[in-house]
């Protein structure tokens, strides 16, 4: 698919925003032909908002407590994304579960990065879960978001060997370094129109 304009992505982030930064770096270095008009956070103090401002993106804090329920909060978020004509939503350390109506409003247009080789270890503290289970290979996954938790179709994954003596922190740091390569790659595949959904399988068209 040939696009006449760069894909417009919006990032949702709750914290540090190092994955957001990896996306920004890829855009600024010309490795990712996308525009990032807006970053939304559910936390006022998220470092991600600062990173967004530095890039020149609109940094929007939406306070979940200001909305009656998740549905109202999700609708507000959809409003912000629509206002910025976002075509792909990237969750980058976004720690709230999106409601079904949010997911249905953007079919096949929401991605998430998770620090585990899904379907192993969904949910919180994936790296801790992997260590406690005793796996020898951990990793990271980028997937499309469906209505479940970390259960959507898998776009790409990278393995990260667990080392003897790894702690949650050392393992998380090695996985994170891989995440920073993986997420921009997945977004680029989407932007280039190379991802197709066949059932729950993502087929990647090679060029
Ligand atoms: C990343 O490791 C990301 O995979 C994880 O949170 C971290 C965010 O770091 N996400 C999840 O666990 C989602 N279930 P960052 O804010 O520096 O990008």
What does the largest sheet look like? 7 strands, mixed
Return the domain count: 1
Mean pLDDT: 97
Provide the CATH top-level class.
Answer: Alpha Beta
The computed structural class is: alpha/beta
Task: Provide structural commentary.
This protein has 207 residues and is of the alpha/beta class. The chain has a single domain (7-204), classed as Rossmann fold (3-Layer(aba) Sandwich), CATH 3.40.50. It is 35% helix and 25% strand. It is built from six helices and nine strands; from the N terminus they run βαβαβαβαβαββαββ. The chain has helices spanning 18-28, 47-55, 70-83, 100-105, 126-133, 168-191, and strands at 7-12, 34-41, 58-61, 88-91, 110-114, 137-144, 154-161, 195-198, 201-204. Strands 3-2-1-4-5-6-7 form a seven-stranded mixed sheet, sandwiched between helices. The protein has a two-stranded antiparallel sheet with strand order 8-9. α1 packs parallel to α2 (47-55) and α1 (18-28) crosses α6 (168-191). The radius of gyration is 17 Å and the shape is globular. It starts with 6 loop residues before the first strand and ends with a strand. The model has no long low-confidence stretch (mean pLDDT 97). Bound molecules: glycinamide ribonucleotide. Glycinamide ribonucleotide (GAR) binds at residues 13, 15-19, 92-93, 113-115, 126, 176, 179.
């Amino acid at each position: 698919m040939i696009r006449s304009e760069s894909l417009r992505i919006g990032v949702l982030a709750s914290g540090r925003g190092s994955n957001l930064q990896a996306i920004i770096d890829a855009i600024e270095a010309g490795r990712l032909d996308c525009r990032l008009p807006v970053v939304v956070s559910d936390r006022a103090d998220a470092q991600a908002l600062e990173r967004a401002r530095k890039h020149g993106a609109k940094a929007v804090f939406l306070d979940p407590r200001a909305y009656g329920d998740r549905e109202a909060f999700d609708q507000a978020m959809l409003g912000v994304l629509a206002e910025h004509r976002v075509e792909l939503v990237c969750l980058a350390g976004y720690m709230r579960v999106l409601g079904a109506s949010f997911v249905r409003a953007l079919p096949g247009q929401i991605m998430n990065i998770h620090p585990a080789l899904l379907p192993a270890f969904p949910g919180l503290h994936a790296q801790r879960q992997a260590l406690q289970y005793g796996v020898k290979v951990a990793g990271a996954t980028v997937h499309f978001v469906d209505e479940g938790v970390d259960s959507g179709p898998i776009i790409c994954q990278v393995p990260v060997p667990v080392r003897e003596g790894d702690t949650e922190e050392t393992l998380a740091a090695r996985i994170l370094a891989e995440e920073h390569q993986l997420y921009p790659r997945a977004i680029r595949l989407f932007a280039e129109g190379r991802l197709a959904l066949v059932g729950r399988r993502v087929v990647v068209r090679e060029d």
